[in-house]
Design brief:
Elements (H helix, E strand, L loop, with lengths): L11 E6 L7 E5 L2 E7 L4 H22 L3 H11 L7 E5 L7 E4 L4 E5 L7 H13 L8 H7 L5 H13 L4
Helix pairs in contact: 2-3, 3-4, 3-5
Length: 167
């Protein structure tokens, strides 16, 4: 697996905008991560929101180094599963590691996985690929998922990560 540099974060520039009332945005401009925040924001809240935007930027950068289509096709072939119609990174899954829509064959993978070991990402992909054939989490589903040899190890890793406090 190709890995992105460990610390890809460019210099951060915070701009307080009188025009902004609630939203925060971040864009890469000339090698700097420009974060725009409402002018009336307190310093503590500003710091929290800027940290969140930097973390999102870093996850996006790490996820760009992983070709999910190739990874899913390889895993599907290796474990006798169907390939998805599409598979993509998403940033809006805070309570799940992945999701699948069996009727369309679409799989979404949380970008929180981008910085985790490849074998953990592979487990989540196999888990979602299994949903293309079995919707629920019954014995038939788990028999399919356990074709991936690191299933238990990856599940333990994800359980431990879920119990860690957010930084």
């Amino acid at each position: 697996m190709t890995r992105a540099p460990a610390n890809p974060t460019p210099p951060v520039v915070v701009i307080r905008s009188a025009r902004r009332k609630k939203t925060v945005s971040a864009r890469l401009v000339d090698g700097e991560l420009v974060v725009r925040v409402p002018a009336g924001l307190g310093r503590r809240r500003e710091s929290e929101l800027v940290s969140d935007m930097v973390a999102k930027f870093e996850r996006r950068h790490r996820s760009e180094a992983v070709d999910l289509d190739v990874r899913a096709s390889t895993l599907a072939r290796r474990h006798g599963l169907r390939s998805p119609t599409s598979i993509r990174w998403v940033s809006n899954q805070s309570g799940r590691w992945g999701s699948c829509t069996p009727s369309t064959g679409d799989i979404r993978i949380s970008d929180r996985l981008a910085g985790m070991p490849g074998w953990v990402l592979d487990y989540v992909i196999v888990h979602e690929l299994a949903h293309l054939d079995v919707a629920g989490h019954g014995p038939e589903f788990w028999a399919i998922v356990h074709r991936y040899p690191r299933t238990e190890r990856a599940r333990g890793y994800l359980i431990a990560k879920a119990m860690e406090p957010d930084d």
